[in-house]
């Protein structure tokens, strides 16, 4: 993942706000629960665009709600 990008963590806040579990997201998106956990825990080195799109569709959100730029450190 690019430096300064926080992958999917905000999306997992959306997940909770929509009352959805990782198990349910797995069933909708078709990404394994193990891979969703890697994304949730910010351990992913890369994320496929198709995965991001599938998660956005499942959570009914925009990509910008999933990927948030971290402010640069001084």
From TrEMBL:
Residues 14-71 form the HTH cro/C1-type domain. Pfam families: HTH_26. SUPFAM superfamilies: lambda repressor-like DNA-binding domains. GO terms for molecular function: DNA binding. This is XRE family transcriptional regulator. It comes from Clavibacter tessellarius. The lineage of its organism: Bacteria, Bacillati, Actinomycetota, Actinomycetes, Micrococcales.
